[in-house]
Amino acid sequence: MIERITVLLSSSGLILRGGFDFNPGEDAPAKAVLLVGHGGAGYWGHFQRWRTQHDDVADPLDAWSRIVIDEVANEVGARAVYPSDQPYMPFQQWAMRAEGLRPSPLGVLMHPEFGLWHAYRGALLFDRALVLGEAPQARHLCDECRQKPCFLGCPVGAFDVDGYDVGACRGHVLGEGVACRKRGCLARNACPYDAYRYPAEVQAFHMDAFLAE
Ligand code: B12
Ligand code: SF4
Ligand code: SF4
Q1: Is 100 helix (H, G, I), strand (E, B) or coil?
Q2: CB-based contact 168:157 (threshold 8 Å)
Q3: What 8-state DSSP symbol labels residue 111?
Q4: Least C-beta-crowded within 10 Å: which of 78, 115, 128, 164?
């Protein structure tokens, strides 16, 4: 079935990110979960082509993701859930278990290949076990990064060891922060593991979505 899902997703640029069976007795919404997302911006061209025909749709990336992932869910007898559905499903906790990832100082999970340049667009929930164990810990690149330039990248110090000051960030981006608005978060962009960095256009799209929340 994993192969089938991979094939079904291939025309969208989205990828299967991993998954696991919930533990017996665990407070969980299903027996197993598979995460769908992207590493880098491989989905962007597919999404943009869809968008040319659907330019009046609200939250277009969410809408497109729902169309793609609902179809896969129907094909494989799963229930699809989405990161922006409320109450929020713990996508990052699931990703840590599915891919063995840990958070960067910015809150975004650090991936050994994609760096900070990846995200989750949905999850497939199954009412049957898939016999999938949790992933072993992946190499955590932040442990090897001595200078931690992400901490210095933000002009208003919105990230520190205590977490992320959303108000300070949003205030800057809506005011003086033209660079953040046009090219994306400077702290995220300061990370040296940038082989999969999203193009500026993609970052500006996500920043607009963040400001609209
Ligand atoms: C609410 C939310 C936000 C709030 C954070 C408010 C806060 N301080 O908690 C706001 C709107 C500020 C935000 C911003 C961003 N977010 Co956000 N966000 C979410 C959302 C929808 C829910 C998080 C939640 O509360 N979960 C409920 C708890 C129970 O689940 P959890 O897994 O334990 O949640 C963990 C996270 O909330 C994390 N966390 C706490 N504070 C922050 C702050 C940031 C910036 C991040 C990334 C995580 C994070 O700690 C929790 C405990 O482990 C998730 C999607 C989801 N459903 O998880 C995306 C999510 C966490 N966000 C994500 C991202 C990428 C961002 C942005 C960096 C960029 C963007 N949206 O394009 C921006 C940062 C803005 C910037 N400067 O660039 C990604 C992270 C992917 C990854 N690689 O790890 C997620 C998973 C969405 C996705 N589609 O993949 N986000
Ligand atoms: S700059 Fe270093 S510490 Fe910060 S996210 Fe990148 S690898 Fe991790
Ligand atoms: S978007 Fe700009 S203001 Fe917000 S955390 Fe990133 S660098 Fe700082």
Answers
A1: coil
A2: yes
A3: B
A4: 128
The pTM is what?
Answer: 0.96
Q: How far is the CA of 65 from the CAs of 44, 123, 183, in angstroms?
A: 11, 11, 23
DSSP string, 124-171: EEESS----PPPPPPP-GGGG-SS-HHHHH-TT--EETTEE-HHHHHH
Other CB atoms within 10 Å distance of the CB of residue 11: 9
**Residue 34 burial (10 A CB sphere; 0-12, 13-18, 19+):** buried
How far apart are the CA of 121 and the centre of ligand 1, in A? 12
Q: Which ligand lies nearest the alpha carbon of 204? A: 1
Give per-residue pLDDT as tens, 66-106: 999 999 999 999 999 999 999 999 999 999 999 999 999 99
Give me ligand 3 centre to Cα 177, in Å. 8
Angstrom distances, CA of residue 194 to CA of 31, 115, 187: 35, 6, 12
Indicate the top mutation candidate among 108, 141, 174 to test ligand 1's pocket, ranked by most ligand atoms within 8 A of CB: 108
Q: Of 79, 57, 58, 61, which is closest to residue 70 (Cα–Cα)?
A: 79
List phi, psi (to 5°) of 37: -170, -150
Query: Distances in Å between the alpha carbon of 166 and those of 132, 163, 199?
Result: 36, 9, 23
